[in-house]
Design brief:
alpha/beta; 5-stranded mixed β-sheet; 5 strands; 9% strand
């Protein structure tokens, strides 16, 4: 049922009250008049006083009976939002019990206030406890695909922005001074390349030895143990060397790039660069991209030598293939195309790692949780795209018979 507002003459209804006068405590009275229950509100129903009648109105909401109830505001001096909330709560609970409720002497600002509070109380909210609708099988299949497509689109656009902004921010033009600090590039080359040599060399040494041991063990059954040199040489120089090096750099340097740029963004250092009139992508990203592009091919060369050295020692110990025989067979097994086909991939993989890591770093929000999430995402995405690009190169080389 909806409430109605009726006006009755009252000696206090039109009086002007001094807002700075003495406050009258709120009061509730109940009386039966003309076969109708009247609830009389009197005094000042303001924030600091309505607590006195709050419990009383709650009890009235449960105890009043009869077909109709009138809430008489004739002796009400002041009422604010708190008082209107108690009055409307009483009205709504009575109406829920099937009792017709009407206001008396509620006109002007009072009627507007009561109506606004009533509308706010009757706004329908979804049931928080209701279980969400069960997705259909089509939604479960295609929703992740659609979300991945949109995320890939956003990341691709951000990657293009990073590349363009890096070149633009570098200000490498013939007719103006370069905005790039050589010291920044050399410093990044030291962090990403020189300091990574031990772990790259050790990993590649072990990988080369493992491939040689497993290959020799299998080829021994066919009396072709010497061909393990072909296996290690071609596999390492064409695929494994650059791929595993790129994966290691993605986990080591890519995560560092995301963490550094992300922490700068959290501390608002990126915004400070913008205020200073500098392009943060050119200042922060470009030196790292240059360092990666230079050092990943160099690290790939180190990885190839370490892997071949590990394979040579393994075959010498495990298969009695002397180093002279190993090197002689290696020269026959590989040619310049084998070396070049692997080295061509390195700069592309370096750019991929740098761009993906920078994109994730610039996505970092203001929390440590966001930083950790994007560092993890940076490593996973970089490794995934590096492997994907390596597969595309393999298909391309097969198509051109290279």
């Amino acid at each position: 049922m909806s409430s109605t507002h009726e006006s009755v003459p009252s000696g206090l209804a039109g009086q002007q009250v001094d807002p700075y006068g003495e406050k009258i405590p709120p009061r509730v009275e109940v009386a039966d008049m003309d076969g109708r229950t009247h609830v009389l509100f009197a005094g000042d129903w303001l924030l600091h006083g309505v607590a006195e009648v709050d419990e009383e109105t709650r009890k009235l909401a449960e105890s009043l009976t009869g077909p109709s109830v009138a809430i008489d505001l004739a002796q009400l001096r002041h009422i604010d939002t708190s008082g209107a909330l108690i009055a409307e709560r009483l009205r709504l609970r009575l109406e829920q019990r099937g009792i017709d409720v009407a206001y008396l002497s509620a006109s002007g600002d009072r009627a507007t206030l009561l109506e606004a509070i009533g509308n706010a109380l009757t706004v329908k909210h979804p049931d928080a406890d209701a279980p969400p609708p069960r997705p259909t099988w089509a939604q479960r299949i295609f929703d992740p695909i659609g979300m991945f497509a949109y995320a890939f689109k956003d990341d691709f656009i951000a990657a293009l922005f990073i590349l363009g902004s890096a070149v633009r921010g570098a200000q490498v033009k013939l007719n103006r001074a370069s905005g790039i600090s050589a010291a920044a590039i050399v410093s990044q080359m030291d962090h990403m390349g020189v300091r990574a040599v031990p772990i790259i060399a050790l990993m590649s040494f072990l990988i080369g030895g493992i491939i040689a041991q497993q290959g020799a063990f299998q080829l021994r059954y066919f009396g072709a143990e010497l061909f393990v040199v072909d296996l290690v040489g071609i596999l390492q120089l064409r695929e494994i060397g650059v791929l595993l090096t790129a994966i290691m750099i993605a986990g080591r340097s890519g995560s560092a790039i995301t963490a550094e740029i992300g922490s700068m963004k959290m501390r608002e250092e990126v915004d400070a660069l913008k205020v200073m009139g500098l392009n943060p992508v050119g200042v922060l990203v470009f030196p790292r991209l240059v360092a990666l592009t230079v050092m990943l091919p160099a690290l790939t060369i180190v990885a190839n030598f370490a892997a071949l050295f590990g394979a040579c020692l393994t075959t010498w110990v495990y298969s009695d293939i002397t180093p002279e025989t190993f090197l002689s067979r290696l020269r026959e097994a590989i040619d310049m195309s084998t070396i070049v086909s692997g080295m061509i991939k390195a700069p592309f993989m370096a750019l991929i790692i740098g761009v993906v890591s920078s994109v994730e770093g610039l996505k970092v929000g203001g929390s440590a949780e966001s930083l950790g999430r994007h560092v993890t995402s940076s490593v996973v995405k970089s490794i995934f795209v590096v492997i994907l690009v390596d597969g595309l190169f393999a298909i391309f080389y097969g198509a051109i018979d290279f």
